[in-house]
Every structure is written in C-alpha cells, then in structure tokens.
Backbone:
C-alpha cells in the first residue's frame, strides 16, 4: 500500500505555474528521489507535500488519509517529518537539546510543565540512541550552531527521526557540502533506510547520491512529471537526458 | 545561550556559586544598601522592576517575541491590587492575586488578537493595545482616580496564623515580603523554562520554522508564554502598588514599557538573571539622575532658565546600550569567558 | 445635532490630516527599513521649533518650506550617525534606539526652548473665520488641509513617476532584488528616511500654528499614526492615508456622542480590523507580519 499518494496536483503563483498536474505514489519502505533541472518545481512540490501551502488543484493522501489542506504541524503529528535545503536547527542550543525538544514534542510532552522521573529517563535514552544513530555520539553538549555543516545536517535528520515519522522528507540533504561530507550524509541516509525500513522521499542535485541511494526516481521538468522508474531506466531515458542536456547546453 | 537550558560542561562549575551569590546579596540587601548610598525602599523598587524585567524577558529573551506594551499588564496588576484593597477586602495576598488575575485575563484576551503578528508588527500592536489601558486608567476618573492616580488604599499586615507581620510601617519587613514573592515567581519561571514546555519556547525563539515543522503549534505556545509573562509582570505591578500605596497611570504608558525593555536588554536578555541586573542599574541610575540632573545642567551649561533634565540622560543611556552593549552587561561578561 | 456632527467630521478630517502626514513618514521608514521611528514625534516638534525661530526672518511661508528641510537634514544626520547601524538587525534595537532618541528630543527641546508652550505666529489673513456660523473653521484649517492634500499628491507622484520613488516602492517589496540590480540601497534608505522626517517637520510647522508648540506636542500624533498604519495595512501608503483620515473622523464623531471614549475609538477600530482582516485594510499578507 502507498504511504504517500499525490493525485494530480497543480500549484500556481499568480500566472506562474510551478507544479502542473503531478501524480506520484510512494510505497512503504521505499526510498524515492525527486530530481529535475533547476526551476523544475521540486521544492514547490515538496512544500505542497509538507503543507507549506495547499495545492491549487489536486489532492494529497498520506496513509489513506486526505491531508490536502492540513496544517504542517498536523501532518507532523500524523507521521510526516522533513528537513530543509538550508539546515533548519536551533543554533544556540546544544545538539542534545535540539534532539530532546523534538523527542519531547513527539512524545506529546510539549505542554508539560514537568516530567516524571520515568518519562525523563525515557526521553534521555531516546536522545542518546538518536545521537549515536546519527553519528553524533560525543557531540551532545556542543552548540549546534558551532558544528560543521555535515554534522548540523545529521543533527537535523536526528531531530526529524525523533518525531518517529512514517515518512521522512529530505530537501537536498547534501546541498552545499564538500566531497567527504556528502559521502557521510549519503551513508547516514543509506544506513537509516536499511536499518529502520523508513520510507524516505528526497530531493537531490548530486546524481551520484541519487543513483547510489534511490529505489525509484521521479523526474520533474518545468513543473511536469517527465519520467518515473528505477535508476537504470531513468539513466537510459532519452527524455530525461534531453531535459538535463537541454538545460546544460 | 541561555543560562536555564541544560547546563553545558563548561558552565557547571560556576553556576551554583553565582546563584548563591545573587541570593545572598538580595537576602542581606537592607543591611548593606545604606553603605552605598541606597535605602530599603530603593532595594524594594529594584526587586519589583527586576521581576517586571524578568517577566518581560520570559517573552523577549526566551520566546523571542517582542512585546513593547508590557507596562499595561504591570499597571493592570497595580490597579487590580489597589482597587481590591480599596473596595473589596483588606487582605494583601488576596489583592495581589486579583491583580495578577486581571493582568493575566487582559493578556489572554489581547494576546489572542495579536499572536499571529511577528517582529516589528507585533511590537506595534502590543504598544497600541497597551495604550488602551493607559487611557482607561487616565479617563475613568470615578474608579481609577484618573490622572491623579489611585489613592486611598494601604498594604495590610500579613496574618500568618500564629503571628502578624506589619509590612506597612516596617520597610524592611516589606522588603522581605517582596523578596519572598520575587523568589516564588522567579523560581516558578526557572522551573517552567526547564520544562518540556519551556524548551518549546526556546525552540520558537531559535527557529520558528523548524519549531513549526516539529509539530509545535506556534501560536498556541506564544499565546501561553504571553499570558504567563503578563501574569508575572502583573504581580510585579501589584507589588509596586503596595510599595507606593498608590497606582499611577503613567505606569501603564508605553514609555514605561520601553524602560522595562531597556532594563532587560541592559542586563542581558539571553540570560535568566540579566534583567534583574539591568533593573538594578537602571533604577539606581534613575534615582540618582532625578536628583542630580538639574545640578549637572547648572554645572555644565550654567544657562539660567534652561535645565537639561533626567529624560535626556535616560535617552542617552538607551542609545549607548543599543549601540555599544546590545548583548547587555552579562552578555559582555559571558563573551569574555568563552 | 446633524450640524454638530458635520462640524466634528470636519474637525476630524482636519486632525486626521496631521495623522496622515505623520503616519506617511513613519510608514515610509518602516516599509523600506523595518524601523519603527519612535522619535518621529520629536522630529515633528523640532520642525515646529525651527519654524518658530525662522518666522521672524523669513516669514511664515518661508519657514513652512525651510523648517521641514532643516528637520530633514537633522534626520539625515541622525540616520547616518545612529540608525543606519541597526538596519537588518533585530527590530528590538532600532525600536529602543528611536525610543531613546524620543527622550533625547524631548529633553533637548525642553532645554533649548523651555517646557512652556510658545506662541506661533501665523499670517493674519489665515486666522479669519471663514463663516460667522462655523466659527471654528478658520482659513488656517482649510489652508492646512490644502497643504496636506497637495503634499500627499506630490508624494504619490514622486513614488510613482520618479526613479527614486519607484526604487523605494520596489525596495519595500524586495530589497535584496533591488540591491542586486545595482541600486545603492544605503543611499536609498538615507534619502527615504530624510523624506519621512521632512513630512514630520512639515506636520510640526502646521500643527504648531493650529494646536500648540511644546516639547511633547508630537506625542498626540504618535499612537494615532501607529494605528493608522495598522488599520490601513503595513506596506500600503494608500492604506495609511485612509487609516489616518478614518481615525480622525471616528475620533471627531465620537467626541459628540461619548467624549470620554474619543481616544478609545481608534483602538476599537484596530481590534476590529485585526479580528476581521489581520493584515489591515490594504496590507499585503506576508509583508512584515
């Protein structure tokens, strides 16, 4: 059964149509990459899924439930978490605090003026396991804002994981990173997907990362769905090559 | 980085010491203040405005929301307390509770109207709505005493079962009563800021978008922080009314709001205790200037009929703080350490 | 009764004109630079005092032009020396700075010219009542209205027809893009600030003749101008004009029926607008909210 179904969504801003009649279905446990040349509407498409704004036309179904017009924080409560192209973290708090806030919100503690001993211990344990999962073991007490770019991204992913999502949306997780950091983040995503069977949708520019990670690839071009399929099929697809080469030429 | 969030390794060592020092200084203040030119009522005033600035900072420094109309809720606490003593019952604690309730309820109603606004716009709307209460206090002469202020009430002795404490004629006893209220309020504030709820406020301050996409309903949490902050500052206002046995409409004016904001910024709005220190500096300076500004003016300019009053110097203080110490006194200290 | 209402509507428009002038200046600075200028009332008073000093030598009409220019020059200096450093920072700091400036202006004008109100001399022919039954309607009030209307029209022409004005409007929407097109944003902001202060100075000259000239005269206009901007919608100068007039008229009419609430009515208007249309009558969603 599909975790996420996007049915014929269109989003226009005034006369500009950023996304035009796109439908996709993401299966449980799948790692789906969304690619496309600059201006293809990838980020708008992502924002539609995570609820930044509603689509002009079409509907979005998450786990069998229509979420087309649901507020972002309600989508989070249903199990949809996301990261951002520009890392969105709490820079002047420590790594552990960042993950802890996320963990407490996920546990439904956000309005609690205090936590019992047992609950506090559970939260603490969860924070520690998330930190080590994200490869941030010894860095819990560092301020996130002081970390290297790759570690900040790992912290952001740990925060998203703390929400115990059934769908993780990653918006260009390796944007602005060097060779080594890109490799490490790609390894982290691969490990997550392998160990937790988490459904992941990611937008990515770096084709090596995409072909290394993705089960299936969706290609957008000028707001339309251009192609969809397994990595090999996409690599061989002439329309996709034309779209990318056309931009490059 | 805030002092109430989880202690990081490098901070653990000196925090308990600093805390002990703060409480020690406050506990014995009535005994050392006279030696540095102070007096007990000035100490009480510092506590009152320290609480006010810390209450505002709950919003400003820890939630990242700029209210520039908080004097209104300070004043509502003062008027609520005064009116309760004058017309309802001669009980100091009851009067304070009613003052806090009045401030919190007003904050809850107006907070709901403004909680969707952000930044400069939020500040403008808070100022404007704050002025509503100023005009009510100023105009509704029959109840509030209008521009003469609310008179005709006195703080009442505290009945503690076995014993009765006279806080009216004994300034030192009243100081300790205010310190007791201050400790309760500040303790509760610190407790809230260390809680999961408090951490969601830090999250909103740090990055509203991220907080929203963690599933925190931002507007609800800001509204709650606003109401809590209004309740605390109303307590400060109530204590101020008790201190003076008088409530002044000027206390609701936006210029008073500005003074409370500058206290928080002057001390350091990213630290829990900064606003108290800012209030101590500001109130002492104001006390000194109101007595000395005219003398300075004569000494500097010697221009008969023209005096440069305290307002000018306070204005200058604002400019200096903003341009030279935007992180506040404690901010400067903390940066020096790291 | 209806005569009284008309009288107060006219009065409201006359007062509203000052709100418009003040609010337009505030709005220009807020829109382009994100600064709420608390000291705007101080600049307004300064304009009045400059005119007071200038009238003996250059006459009223000379002062009407020169005093606002002098005020704008003071504004430019203040912007260059103090305000400029805070652009792009947390709005808290510019708020506190201009708040302090307002104190400095008030203390400073009191020091230089005294706390007492000063008599402002306006030409005799402007002091005549226009009609024997409507004694309040001096030709000076009408003159004020004409001047304000002319200035508003000129300002809108400036903003729509000149390169400078178009840049200001574009910068209000997206300053980064304007900067990337090679416009000197620093200069643009400085002149825009000075323009806003010019309007405050002009308001000061006119108001000093009609109401009073003393160090706190600007306080009467600050809150109504804030509310005019909120009601009209942040980011919309047309909305600001409408907001100012609406507040003036509403206050005037309330004075007839319920004088004690004449100040409260504008706050009620603001609350209603925020409930029904949070962005203000002509505000754009997402702009500085």
Residues:
């Amino acid at each position: 059964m599909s975790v996420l179904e996007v049915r014929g969504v269109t989003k226009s801003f005034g006369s500009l149509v950023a996304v035009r009649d796109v439908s996709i279905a993401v299966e449980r446990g799948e790692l789906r990459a969304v690619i496309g040349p600059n201006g293809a509407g990838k980020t708008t498409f992502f924002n539609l899924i995570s609820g930044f704004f509603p689509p002009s036309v079409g509907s979005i179904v998450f786990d069998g439930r229509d979420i087309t017009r649901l507020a972002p924080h309600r989508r989070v409560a249903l199990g949809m978490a996301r990261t951002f192209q520009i890392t969105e973290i709490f820079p002047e708090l420590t790594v552990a605090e960042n993950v802890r806030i996320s963990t407490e919100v996920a546990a439904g503690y956000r309005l609690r003026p205090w936590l019992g001993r047992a609950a506090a211990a559970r939260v603490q344990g969860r924070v520690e396991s998330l930190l080590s999962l994200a490869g941030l073991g010894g860095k819990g007490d560092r301020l996130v804002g002081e970390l290297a770019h790759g570690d900040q991204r790992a912290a952001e992913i740990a925060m998203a994981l703390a929400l115990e999502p059934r769908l993780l949306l990653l918006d260009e997780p390796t944007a602005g990173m060097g060779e080594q950091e890109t490799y490490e983040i790609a390894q982290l995503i691969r490990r997550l997907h392998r160990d937790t069977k988490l459904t992941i949708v990611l937008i990515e520019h770096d084709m090596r990362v995409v072909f290394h990670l993705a089960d299936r690839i969706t290609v957008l071009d000028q707001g339309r769905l251009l192609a969809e399929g397994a990595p090999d099929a996409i690599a061989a697809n002439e329309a996709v090559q034309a779209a990318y080469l056309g931009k490059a030429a | 980085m805030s002092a109430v969030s989880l202690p990081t390794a490098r901070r653990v060592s000196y925090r308990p010491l600093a805390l002990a020092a703060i409480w020690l200084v406050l506990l014995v203040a009535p005994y050392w203040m006279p030696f540095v030119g102070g007096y007990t009522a000035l100490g009480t005033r510092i506590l009152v405005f320290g609480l006010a600035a810390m209450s505002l900072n709950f919003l400003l420094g820890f939630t990242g929301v700029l209210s520039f109309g908080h004097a209104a809720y300070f004043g509502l606490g003062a008027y609520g307390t005064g009116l309760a003593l004058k017309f309802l019952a001669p009980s100091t604690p009851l009067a304070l509770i009613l003052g806090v309730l009045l401030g919190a309820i007003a904050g809850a109603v107006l907070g709901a109207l403004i909680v969707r606004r952000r930044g400069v716009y939020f500040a403008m709307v808070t100022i404007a709505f704050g002025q509503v209460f100023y005009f009510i206090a100023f105009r509704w002469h029959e109840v509030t005493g209008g521009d003469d202020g609310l008179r005709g009430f006195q703080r009442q002795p505290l009945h503690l079962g076995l014993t009765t404490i006279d806080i009216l004629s004994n300034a030192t006893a009243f100081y300790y009563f205010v310190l007791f209220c201050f400790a309760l309020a500040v303790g509760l504030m610190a407790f809230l800021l260390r809680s999961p709820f408090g951490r969601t406020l830090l999250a909103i301050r740090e990055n509203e978008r991220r907080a929203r996409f963690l599933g925190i309903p931002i507007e609800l949490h800001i509204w709650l922080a606003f109401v809590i902050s209004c309740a605390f500052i109303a307590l400060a206002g109530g204590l101020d009314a008790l201190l003076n046995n008088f409530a002044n409409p000027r206390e609701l004016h936006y210029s008073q709001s500005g003074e409370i904001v500058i206290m928080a910024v002057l001390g350091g709005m990213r630290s829990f205790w900064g606003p108290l220190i800012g209030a101590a500096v500001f109130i002492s300076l104001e006390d000194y200037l109101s007595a000395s500004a005219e003398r300075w003016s004569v000494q500097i300019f010697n221009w008969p009929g023209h005096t440069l009053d305290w307002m000018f110097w306070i204005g200058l203080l604002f400019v200096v703080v903003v341009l030279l110490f935007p992180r506040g006194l404690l901010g400067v200290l903390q940066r020096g350490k790291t | 009764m209806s005569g009284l209402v008309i009288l107060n509507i006219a009065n409201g428009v006359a007062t509203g004109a000052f709100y418009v002038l003040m609010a337009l200046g505030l709005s220009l600075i807020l829109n382009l630079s994100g600064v709420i200028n608390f000291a705007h009332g101080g600049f307004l008073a300064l304009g009045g005092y400059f005119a007071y000093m200038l009238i003996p030598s250059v006459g009223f009409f000379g002062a009407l032009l020169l005093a606002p220019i002098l005020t704008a020059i003071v504004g430019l200096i203040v912007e260059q020396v103090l305000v400029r450093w805070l652009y792009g920072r947390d709005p808290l700091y510019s708020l506190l700075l201009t708040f302090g400036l307002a104190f400095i202006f008030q203390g400073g004008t009191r020091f230089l010219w005294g706390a007492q109100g000063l008599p402002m001399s306006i030409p005799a022919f402007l002091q005549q009542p226009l009609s024997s039954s409507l004694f309040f309607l001096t030709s000076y009030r009408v003159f004020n209205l004409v001047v304000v209307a002319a200035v508003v029209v000129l300002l809108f022409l400036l903003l729509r027809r000149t390169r400078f004005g178009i840049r200001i409007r574009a910068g209000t929407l997206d300053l980064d893009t304007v900067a990337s097109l090679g416009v000197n944003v620093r200069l643009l902001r400085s002149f825009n600030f000075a323009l806003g202060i010019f309007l405050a100075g002009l308001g000061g000259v006119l108001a000093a003749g009609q109401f009073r000239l003393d160090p706190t005269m600007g306080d009467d206009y600050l809150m109504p101008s804030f509310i005019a901007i909120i009601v009209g919608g942040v980011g919309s100068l047309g909305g600001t004009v409408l907001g100012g007039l609406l507040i003036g008229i509403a206050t005037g009419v309330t004075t007839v029926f319920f004088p004690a609430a004449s100040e409260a009515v504008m706050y009620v208007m603001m609350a209603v607008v925020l409930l029904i249309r949070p962005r203000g009558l002509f505000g754009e969603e997402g702009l500085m909210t």
About this structure: Chain B touches chain C through 49 residues (CB under 8 Å). Residues 1-12 of chain B have pLDDT under 50 and may be disordered. DSSP finds 16 helices and two strands in chain B.
